[in-house]
Amino acid sequence: MFDDLPQDVDRLQTLRVWHAMWLVRIDAKIAALQHRQAEAERGRRDRPQPPEWVVELGIGTGRLPLQVLAGACYMAGKRRRPVGRYEARRLLADGLRACTHYRPDAQLDIIDLADDGRTPHILTPSEGHRR
Questions:
Q1: Coil/strand/helix, residue 69
Q2: What gap in Å lies between CA 46 and CA 97, rounded to an integer?
Q3: Interval 90-122: pLDDT, tens
Q4: Beta bridge partners of 130
Q5: Are the CB atoms for 97 and 77 separated by under 8 Å?
Q6: Could you tell me which of 109, 71, 76 has the C-alpha nearest to residue 92?
Q7: What is the dihedral of CA 69, 79, 95, 110, to 10 degrees?
Q8: How would residue 11 be classed by pLDDT, with cut points 50, 70 and 90?
Q9: Distance between CA atoms of 55 and 76, rounded to whole angstroms?
Q10: Termini Cα distance of the chain
Q11: 73: exposed, middle or buried (C-beta count within 10 Å: 0-12, 13-18, 19+)?
Q12: Is residue 121 within 8 Å of 93, Cβ to Cβ?
């Protein structure tokens, strides 16, 4: 039945020890991979949500805001800070530039933003525009 195995007891016991050592190594590798997968899943699950809106800041000590961007916008640089919906609307209404890719002015219900100095119009729910 087991013709390919050695015929003496000493070599069979050596093979048994060798296979037991390999099983310990394999079990350790399985445990390490399962731990790594569990950590990766926990990291994906517990990752903080990106901010809804960010303000890109200028260079220097004053770091004045340059433009309002959506939190997931790929155009946002490293100098930024998260802002809430109310502050993003206020900054846009005060004349801060809006990102041209995700159009936060449209998403925040602010229309008529132009560079000609006009006061922007903020839509209200009574005007029939709801998100």
A1: strand
A2: 33
A3: 888 888 788 777 777 777 777 655 444 444 555
A4: none
A5: no
A6: 109
A7: 20
A8: very high
A9: 8
A10: 75
A11: buried
A12: no
Q: 66 and 97 in contact (C-beta within 8 Å)?
A: yes
- Helix or strand holding residue 97 (H, E): strand 97-98
For the record, the structure tokens of 7 come out as 């015929």
Q: What is the pLDDT of residues 37-82, one digit of tens each?
A: 999 999 999 988 888 888 888 887 778 888 888 877 777 777 888 8
Q: Look at the block and give the residue holding tokens 């029939």.
A: 128
Q: What one-character-per-residue DSSP string does 26-58 give?
A: HHHHHHHHHHHHHHHHHHHHHPPPPPSEEEEE-
